[in-house]
């Protein structure tokens, strides 16, 4: 199976976590696109979705799935999203699609984060994938210096403005051995909107697609 087929496989597997009549939290990315398509094809009637990006909102609406404002819900039973990296404990790097801030907001509403990913995303230690950080534009130079002190090289993602009007720094050269402490530290830096380490909002379940099918990591 190629990577696209694995994404479709885990997108379909995530349907097991969707309860008819409930509101589902929906992430962003090519794997989530597969989930949205699978949800539409499944005939499962959800009460609606809370979406983490304009991209996912458009796809949900194209399928006739109502999209609700995050402010209109008090909680979600499940949030389904992809990842750029995930480790064996469910800690993730996210934000390759620049949607990390809204992803963390919607994840925060949910009781359970179900991560859907192909096996290439599983890592022993986070940091190989360039870490996305959404920032306030005027902080870019200072934050670049701060990351350099940690051994990281930050590059402004050219031409990208997030759904919130922020910019994205992609940071290479990091090895994130303590994701909880790292996330807490970076979140304190002035000008950081959201760091793409999801440690406090880690995945409780990971549906990992590989040669032998879908493996469920909990
Ligand atoms: C978007 C994300 C995505 O979940 C992540 O980039 C994975 O994307 P894909 O499913 O396309 O590999 O965090 O901000």
From TrEMBL:
Q: Which InterPro entries does the record associate with it?
A: NagB/RpiA_transferase-like, Ribose5P_isomerase_typA_subgr, Ribose5P_isomerase_type_A
Which controlled-vocabulary keywords does the entry list?
Answer: Isomerase
Active site (catalytic residues):
103
Q: What is its EC number?
A: 5.3.1.6
Q: What is its pathway?
A: Carbohydrate degradation; pentose phosphate pathway; D-ribose 5-phosphate from D-ribulose 5-phosphate (non-oxidative stage): step 1/1
Q: Where does substrate bind?
A: 28-31, 81-84, 94-97, 121
Catalytic activity from the UniProt record: aldehydo-D-ribose 5-phosphate = D-ribulose 5-phosphate
Q: Show the GO MF annotations.
A: ribose-5-phosphate isomerase activity
In terms of HAMAP family, this protein maps to: Rib_5P_isom_A (MF_00170)
- Describe its partners and assembly state: Homodimer.
Give the family, as the similarity comment puts it. Belongs to the ribose 5-phosphate isomerase family.
Role of this protein: Catalyzes the reversible conversion of ribose-5-phosphate to ribulose 5-phosphate.
What protein name does the entry list?
Answer: Ribose-5-phosphate isomerase A
Q: Gene symbol?
A: rpiA
């Amino acid at each position: 199976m190629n990577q696209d087929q694995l994404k479709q496989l885990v997108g379909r597997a995530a349907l097991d976590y969707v309860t008819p009549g409930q509101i589902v939290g929906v992430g962003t990315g090519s794997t989530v696109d597969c989930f949205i398509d699978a949800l539409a094809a499944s005939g499962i009637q959800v009460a609606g979705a809370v979406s983490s990006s304009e991209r996912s909102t458009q796809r949900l609406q194209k399928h006739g799935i109502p999209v609700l404002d995050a402010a209109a819900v008090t909680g979600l039973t499940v949030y389904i999203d992809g990842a750029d990296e995930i480790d064996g404990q469910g800690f993730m790097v996210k934000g390759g699609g620049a949607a990390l801030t809204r992803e963390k907001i919607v994840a925060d509403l949910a009781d359970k984060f179900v991560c859907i990913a192909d096996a290439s995303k599983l890592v022993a230690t986070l940091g190989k994938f360039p870490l996305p950080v959404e920032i306030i534009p005027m902080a870019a130079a200072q934050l670049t210096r701060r990351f350099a002190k940690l051994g990281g090289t930050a590059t402004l993602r050219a031409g990208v403005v997030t759904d919130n009007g922020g910019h994205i720094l992609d940071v290479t050269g990091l090895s994130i051995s303590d994701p909880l402490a790292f996330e807490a530290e970076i979140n304190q830096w002035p000008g950081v909107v959201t760091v793409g380490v999801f440690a406090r909002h880690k995945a409780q379940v990971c549906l990992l697609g590989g040669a032998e099918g879908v493996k469920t990591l909990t």
